[in-house]
Amino acid sequence: MPLRSTDAGINALISELGLSHDRLAKNIDELETGGEAPLGTRVETLSKNKIEIEQRLARVDDSFNILKTVGLDFEELAQRRAQLERSLADVETDPDGKSLADRQNALNDFVLQSR
Questions:
Q1: CB atoms within 10 A of CB 45
Q2: Which residues of the chain fall below pLDDT 50?
Q3: What is the widest separation between alpha-carbon atoms in the chain?
Q4: What pTM was estimated for this model as a whole?
Q5: Which helix (H) or strand (E) holds 70?
């Protein structure tokens, strides 16, 4: 008998669920039809945009990695250049400790004196 009661029984619960169903259906319809396009179309567009953004981000990441590699190559070249300059400076210095510039100046002085 309590289940058949009109205030708290199954019929009241069925009526309440029917109203909730109607409100829910109305809310879903508003979501689906609201905005510029139907909900399915908007979701599909968002999904495509997400994929496109992920691809663009992957390209940016690839470009960053390439630039990082180029930067490391330039750093290595700078180190090699410094090493080459040190090696040339060592080679240009004679056993007496005179640099190439000193020897060239001495040669120029000798040429001037010879004239």
A1: 12
A2: none
A3: 137
A4: 0.50
A5: helix 39-92
